[in-house]
Automatic annotation (TrEMBL):
The gene is spoVAEB1. Keywords: Membrane, Transmembrane, Transmembrane helix. The chain crosses the membrane at residues 6-24, 31-48, 93-112. It comes from Clostridium saccharoperbutylacetonicum N1-4(HMT). The lineage of its organism: Bacteria, Bacillati, Bacillota, Clostridia, Eubacteriales. It comes from the Bacteria. This is Stage V sporulation protein AEB. InterPro entries: Spore_V_AE, SpoVA.
Amino acid sequence: MNYISAFIVGGLICVIGQILIDVTKLTPGRILVVFVVLGAIVGSFGWYDKLIEIGGAGATVPLPSFGNALAKSAIKEVKENGLIGAFTGGIKGAAAGITASIFFGYLMALIFNPKTKK
């Protein structure tokens, strides 16, 4: 049952992304930013943790989970270190994800020719 719920939750997140690509004039990069920001907003209210309980890896692998990790880390650091934690928390909590994003984004930019949507 865990595999089915992960497939459904992850699939729904991907379907939302595909609909945004097909229906809007948003570029994939902007859609990714929307997903991260929505994950941070939903995570700051604690709702994303409930989605992770239901969907498991289907909720932890996509981009909203990255936003959730940023929000949770920033909230934790603010509680521990005050306002400066709002700036350092996200970096500490998601350092591996940030590093991987930068590295693989740069690598893909070298390999492929990016195009804008018309």
